[in-house]
Structure formats: structure tokens, C-alpha cells
Amino acid sequence: MFFRSFLSVSLVSWVGVVVAADSAWQHLGNLSPYQKAPLPSGVKADLPDDCTVDQVMLMHRHGSRYPLVTELPFIQGLQYKLGNASDALAKAKLPSNLQFLKKGYTTTLGVNDLTAPGRQQLFNHGVEFRLKYPNLQASSVLAGGQDRVIESAQWFSQGYFGRTWPTLNETEFSTLPENNVTISWITPMDTCPLWQYAYGNNATVTWGAVYLPPITKRLNNVLPHTNLTDDDTHGALFACAYDLAAHGVSPWCDAFTEKEIADFEYELDLLMDGAFGYNLPSPMGPMLGTLFVNKLIERFSNSTGNASAVYLEFGHDTTIDQALAALGLAKDSPPLPASGPVPANRKFKTSIQVPFAAQMVWEKFSCTSSAKDAQIRLVLNESPLPLSACAKSSFDKSHGSCSYDSFVKANSYSTSTQWGSAAWNKTCGVAAF
Ligand SMILES: *[C@@H]1O[C@H](CO)[C@@H](O)[C@H](O)[C@H]1NC(C)=O
Ligand SMILES: *[C@@H]1O[C@H](CO)[C@@H](O)[C@H](O)[C@H]1NC(C)=O
Ligand SMILES: *[C@@H]1O[C@H](CO)[C@@H](O)[C@H](O)[C@H]1NC(C)=O
Ligand SMILES: *[C@@H]1O[C@H](CO)[C@@H](O)[C@H](O)[C@H]1NC(C)=O
Ligand SMILES: *[C@@H]1O[C@H](CO)[C@@H](O)[C@H](O)[C@H]1NC(C)=O
Ligand SMILES: *[C@@H]1O[C@H](CO)[C@@H](O)[C@H](O)[C@H]1NC(C)=O
Ligand SMILES: *[C@@H]1O[C@H](CO)[C@@H](O)[C@H](O)[C@H]1NC(C)=O
Ligand SMILES: *[C@@H]1O[C@H](CO)[C@@H](O)[C@H](O)[C@H]1NC(C)=O
User: Contact 256/24 with Cβ under 8 angstroms?
Assistant: First the structure.
């Protein structure tokens, strides 16, 4: 059985006690509360003492949020079914992990907005970022123009700058609209008209039809008169994820086996890979992410002559997934199959790559003796994600890094792609006049 509360789990870890390796909250895909990514084997987390980070670019996902308007109805539908069966449930002999249903289940979840745990994740990350790079002082913050992203940037800034932050002016705190006319590395898909048609949920529907029915059957066998459907089961899985996101605790996480949660996690991976990654019609996923990679290279090469030492920017899981696709990272071959079986060692894993409050940190660094020339590495959720396409030396391999020049060369697909080019227009269905 899983821990019912992730807050109690993190409290335990604060006092240094080893926490159980696996619990439900760690396997809720992009709906997982923030967690540090595992360190890839053979890779060191820290740079040697003779290396200095000269420039850093942070792309931060917003923190834990309420369900989307498309997700909440599943939870409300479940509540309705359980409410109808309340008399039978109160009298029934229920298994211990479902005892809570004797008193009924009422959801008070809102929609879309950042939650209290979300605020805390961002404030903490702001403090930690300030401490991690004491010699690099940021002077501006940029947020994608959506409420939960803006609020996330605000909490991070409170942690990073302190209470003087609210007096900063618009030069220092700005937003980039999230709409279909703003060319943005935070929301590149919004200016690609065909994306909204390519972004089908076919894979998740296919996978849902495989993994949900046995769970529904199991629940109906122990919950009298509820007559749950697969949509209700889906609602119960969402209830686990979103109660955690909003309240830090959910009785529903205990209602599922480890395998059932792992199957839900796979659904979320299929969703993100299909909508913002490698399972979009080729080459849409990598192409969209080139806007981010080109922005990174523009800044780290200082090609406009006005690059800052620190960038603090706020966006989405989708921002990070599209960037990973352009970089060729976390790519599965063969592609993730919609009808299963779940590939156990898949590389595309939203639980560790894009949980709520995910932090994609790019460091440009130099060393006096360990390495020659400028270097680059990607630290995703506090662990280096090896830049395998350009890693050459043993230093590269043990730090997940590359020489900056090799990194730029390895990303020629990005540097040769531009928004509004013939290739972009073709992939995005933009008519050229
Ligand atoms: C719930 O109960 C109402 C009133 O008895 C009934 O009309 C409705 O069909 C029931 N709904 C479900 C989903 O069982
Ligand atoms: C905003 O702050 C920046 C950086 O301190 C400063 O250069 C600029 O003049 C300020 N702008 C306004 C309108 O106060
Ligand atoms: C942007 O969206 C609006 C509203 O949905 C639509 O009318 C318009 O045609 C779109 N523009 C582009 C460039 O896609
Ligand atoms: C999704 O399925 C529908 C119906 O089967 C099909 O028409 C559509 O082309 C599929 N979309 C994608 C992106 O595969
Ligand atoms: C259970 O739900 C199904 C589908 O919603 C419906 O067809 C069936 O009549 C229901 N059974 C009972 C016993 O309410
Ligand atoms: C940096 O220079 C480029 C090119 O001249 C310009 O478009 C951009 O606005 C400048 N950025 C800042 C932060 O001044
Ligand atoms: C970018 O180049 C300008 C002009 O040479 C310089 O003032 C600035 O410090 C450089 N930025 C970084 C991050 O190196
Ligand atoms: C791509 O489409 C845009 C908008 O229609 C157009 O301005 C641009 O010229 C097109 N690019 C090419 C290379 O045709």
C-alpha cells in the first residue's frame, strides 16, 4: 500500500529518515508533486571545484494546480455515483483501503489555478536557486501569460529576491502572452495551426480501454450499488493526483495497487509524448521545441550582444517536453505503444521529467583544469540529464555535459529551423502566399 500523504513523507525525509523508495505520488506522471529526478548511473551531480557557472537559464514549470476544466468532471461524476450509493456503502463491509467511503467522498477542488502546495514549491525553489548561484544575481523574471504561471513566478521571486520584489517594475517582471499570435519558446505549439489537430487523444483512449476496465471491475466487486464506469475509475485516479496537488493528502491513492498507478502514469506519458513530444506526426514535436533551443543558443552564444548572466523564466510541462524533443533527449525507440505493454525502461517519463514545479536548468560553465573551453550541461530537477548527442570526453560522460561548441554543432537541426520558414509552414499547415 502507498503512503496516503506526501506531506508526511517529506516531513519524514526532513529529519533524515530514509523514505520508502516507491509510493503513488512519485508515479503520477506530470501530475506528480515536485520530486528530484534520480541521478543517472555514472554521472556526478556536482561540478568539480575548479569549474564556475558563468551563465544560467531556468525554465520552470508552474507548481501544483487544480484539475483542468476537462478533468474535474471525471471526479465530480465519481462523487455523484458514490453519493447515490451512500446508504449501501455506509452499511457495507469494505476493505480497509476503502473504509473512507463509508462517510462518502466530497470534492472541493477548484480548476486551473495554483494550489497551496504549488505556492510552497515555487517559494522553496526561489530560495534554493538564490543559494545555489550566489555569484549570479538575476535582475528580471519572465512568465508565460497564464494565471498559474504568473503566480508561480511571483512566489519564486518572493523566495529569490525577498520582499523588495513587489516594487520591481515591468522591466524586471514581464509576461509573454500565451496565444496564437505570439511567437514564443514557452508555448511554441500555439503558433502552429495544425498542432491542434495533430494533438489527438487517440493513444490515451486506446490505452484507457486496455487498463481501466479491470480496475473498474475490481472496484465494482467491492463497492455495492455504485456501478462505476471506466470514466469514474479515471475520476478516482485523478482524485488521487489532484487531492494531493491541492490538499497534500488523498484517501484515493491507497485505493489502487502499484501496477494500477503505474498504468495511469503510462497514460500520462502517452498523453504528453503524443501532444508535445515524439508521438506527434514527425517532425512536429522536435520542430516546435527548436524555438526554445534557439533561444538558449542565442543567449549562451551572446549573439545579440546583450545576453544576461541569469534568466528566470516560467512556463509549462509542455515547454520542457517540446524542448526535450528538439534536443533528441528522452526519446524511445520504438515509440511508446498505445496498446501496451508498458515499456518498463522507457526514457520518456513525465514523473521524473515534468512533475509540478519541474526545473529545467541550463548551465554554461568554465573550468581551470578539468575541461578546456566553455562547457554546458542540463540539470533537470536537480540531476544532470546527460547531453548524449555531443558527449565525447570522459569528463563529458561523468558530468552529463558537453563542450559548448559541440553542443551547438549537435543541434544543427534547431539552428537551421526558423519560425515561418518553408519547413515550419509545411509542418504547421500555414499557407504561404
Ligand atoms: C442517482 O439517483 C437518482 C435519484 O434516485 C437517479 O435518478 C439517478 O439515475 C441515479 N444516478 C446514477 C448514476 O445512478
Ligand atoms: C526599472 O528598473 C530598471 C532596472 O533597475 C531600470 O533600469 C529602469 O529605469 C526602471 N524603469 C522604470 C520605469 O522605473
Ligand atoms: C487565432 O485564434 C482566433 C480565435 O480562436 C482565430 O479567430 C484566429 O484565426 C487565429 N489566428 C491564427 C493566426 O491562427
Ligand atoms: C484519431 O482517431 C480518429 C478516429 O479513429 C482518426 O480519424 C484520427 O485520424 C486519429 N488521429 C490521429 C492523430 O491519429
Ligand atoms: C450500470 O450502468 C450501466 C451503464 O451506465 C447501465 O447500463 C446499467 O443499467 C447500470 N446497472 C445498474 C444495476 O444500475
Ligand atoms: C537584445 O538585443 C536584441 C537584438 O538587438 C533585441 O531584439 C532585444 O530586445 C534585446 N534584449 C534586451 C533584453 O535588451
Ligand atoms: C554579452 O556581450 C556584451 C557585449 O560584449 C557584454 O557586455 C555582456 O556581458 C555579455 N553577456 C554575457 C552573459 O556574457
Ligand atoms: C510562411 O507563412 C507566413 C505566413 O503566411 C509567410 O509570411 C511566410 O512568408 C511563409 N514562409 C515561407 C518560407 O514561405
Answer: yes
